[in-house]
Amino acid sequence: MKQSDSDILHEIKNNNSQVFEGLYNAYYISLCHFAYKYVADKEEVEDIVQETMTKIWEKRKTIIIDNFKNYLFTSVKHACLNRLHHKTIQHKHHAAIAHDLLLFEIESDTNYIDKTEKHTKEKIEDVLQLLPEKMQKALRMKYIDGLSSKEISKITDTSQRTIETQIYKGIKKISEHFKHLLQIILIFLFF
C-alpha cells in the first residue's frame, strides 16, 4: 500500500529513517537527472542532491510539505541556481583579483618595476591584439579612458550587458595569458 505524503512526513518527523531512506532512494536518480540540466557536473549534481536531502532530514521536525515530489524538485532547482550564482560571483571575484594583480607594483626596486611594467604593458598589448576588435575597444575605453560600461554602451551603440560581457571575457583571456606571472606575484606576496 502506497503511503500518502502526509503519512510519509509524519513518519519522517518521528525520526523514521527507513521511510526517509526509501524516499531518498525513490527520488535520487530522478533528482540527479533533473539537477544535471542546471549543473552539468556529475559530482556536483550528486553533492547538490545529497545536501538537499540532508537539509530536509535536519529540518524534519519543522518542515511543512504538501507534496514531496514538488518540494524535492523545487529544492534541488533552488540549490542548483544558488550554486550557479555562487560560481558567477566567484568568477567575477577571480577576474577582479587577476586584474588587480596585473597592475600590482613592486616598490622595492624601481628599475625592476620599470622593466616589469614596460614588459607587462607590452604583453597586455600583445594579448589585446589577439582579442576581437570590439572586445579590445571595450577594454581600452574601460581601463585606459576610464569610462563606465554605461558610457561605453552609449558611445558604441551596444547594450550595456554586451559591453560588460566583453570586458569580463577580455579580462579572463588576459589573465589566462598571465597565469605564470600571477603565480610569481602571489609567491612574493605570501612568502
Distance from N terminus to C terminus (CA atoms, Å) equals 66 Å
* Number of DSSP strand runs: 0
Q: Could you give a short account of the major beta sheet?
A: none
State the CATH architecture of the largest domain: Orthogonal Bundle
> What is the helix content?
over 70%
CATH superfamily of the largest domain: Winged helix-like DNA-binding domain superfamily/Winged helix DNA-binding domain
Query: What spatial form do the alpha-carbon principal axes imply?
Result: elongated
**The CATH topology of the largest domain is what?**
Arc Repressor Mutant, subunit A
Series of H and E elements: HHHHHHHHH
The domain count comes to 2
Q: Can you identify the CATH class of the largest domain? A: Mainly Alpha
User: In percent terms, what proportion of residues is strand?
Assistant: under 5%
Q: Which regions contain 5 or more consecutive residues with pLDDT less than 50?
A: 105-109
| Rg value | 25 Å
- Could you say which structural class the secondary elements and strand pairing correspond to? mainly alpha
